[in-house]
Specification:
By secondary structure, the protein is an alpha/beta fold. It has a single domain, classed as Alpha/Beta hydrolase fold, catalytic domain (Rossmann fold, 3-Layer(aba) Sandwich), CATH 3.40.50. Helix content is 36%, strand content 14%. It is built from 13 helices and 8 strands. It has an 8-stranded mixed beta sheet. Strand 3, helix 2 and strand 4 form a beta-alpha-beta unit. Helix 3 crosses helix 5 and helix 9 packs across helix 10. It is globular and about 55 Å long.
Length: 345
């Protein structure tokens, strides 16, 4: 298979940080320090998708439709740890694609954001079946022009697990990840490092609040484990792993690692990562580069932080523009409405 990424996307200018957001930490924190004012054009529609595991859980999603939809694929966005459809990076990406006349589905994983009210369960690094159940429930109109899937941080790892197991059941044209935690064990160790104490404290506090909020289905032992956990590893070892059938945190990390299933992914895929990401180390990407197939392109920049990529030369984030260029190589815009779209080929 030839590499579909060799083209205009590969010739995009290299990432250069916007002043004064220099370095991995400032790139990561920029949206928290200066909240972006994101306007989403078009109209919104709430969707609910029933999980097929018999739990009765329903995943919430928001469908954004531009005023004049084009002929490109439906963009599906999957958030990261402690995120939801309303995370700044999700809204920024949605706005980027809506301006290009693409419909966007912002999916909330089980127990995240508005899914908390309709789910007793909670998402984790390997929640591939939840993505499958949601996408298989889409109607023919939403599937008619194909799908392009984008996962951020933990959502990128979930996406890789999904693509390795379920992609052949859906018209997926391509996919991308941004700052994906493709080796959860290494990501956990990085987040628990002393220099990341602030991030670690914030994430653990948010995760505890998220999984104990109204609607969560927990027994007394699980509530006790959540309360007792003092680190991300303890949280995963005492709560996430046993709740989802893993022997412990190490087993959970190993069996859900996206890099392990990359060879089974057949759709075109772009992986974007910054080497100065304070949350996710670059070594798993370096190793994967030697083993992945020609359908996968890895773009590792020196700067950009964690789901940051705030560039000096454009208001849109660099990762959105890089993914947009990748989409154009897979599904070139139709020259005229009367011509059949090559997305459907």
């Amino acid at each position: 298979m030839s590499n579909p990424t060799q083209g205009p996307a590969s010739r995009m200018p290299a990432f250069r940080a916007r002043a004064p957001w220099w370095g991995g930490h400032l790139q990561t924190l920029r949206n928290k320090l200066v909240r972006p004012d994101v306007v989403l054009p078009g109209r919104r529609e709430r969707f609910y998708f029933t999980a097929k595991d018999g739990s009765g859980d329903m995943l919430a999603a928001m469908l954004d439709t531009p005023d004049a939809p084009g002929d490109g694929p439906l963009i599906v966005l999957i958030h990261g740890l402690a995120g939801s459809e309303d995370s700044d990076y999700m809204r920024l990406s949605a706005a980027y694609h809506l301006k290009r006349r693409r419909r966007v589905l912002r999916l909330n994983l089980r127990g995240a954001g508005p899914s908390r009210r309709t789910c007793g369960g909670q998402y984790h690094c390997g929640s591939a079946s939840d993505v499958r159940d949601a996408l298989l429930a889409l109607d023919d109109d939403l599937l008619s022009k194909g799908l392009f899937l984008i996962g951020y941080s933990l959502g990128g790892n979930v996406l890789m697990n999904f693509l390795a197991s379920h992609a052949d059941r859906l018209p997926i044209r391509g996919s991308a990840t941004v700052s994906a935690a493709i080796d959860p064990a290494q990501a956990a160790r990085r987040l628990m490092a002393p220099q990341n104490a602030g991030y670690h404290f914030w994430l653990l506090k948010h995760m505890k609040r998220e999984c104990t909020s109204l609607g969560a289905r927990l027994d007394d032992d699980e509530r006790g484990a959540i309360s007792y956990a003092r680190t991300l590893y303890e949280f995963d070892d005492m709560f996430v792993a046993p709740r989802n059938g893993f022997a412990g945190a190490d087993d959970y990390y190993a069996r859900t690692a996206g890099w392990r299933v990359a060879a089974e992914i057949r759709v075109p895929m772009l992986l974007i990562h910054a080497r100065n990401d304070p949350w996710i180390p670059p070594e798993p990407y370096d190793a994967l580069r030697q083993a992945c197939g020609p359908n996968i392109e890895i773009v590792a920049t020196d700067d950009g932080g964690h789901v940051g990529f705030h560039a000096r030369d454009h208001n849109d984030t660099w990762h959105d523009r890089r993914v947009g260029a990748f989409i154009d190589t897979l599904c070139p815009p139709c020259a005229r409405v009367s011509e059949p779209c090559r997305c459907r080929a």
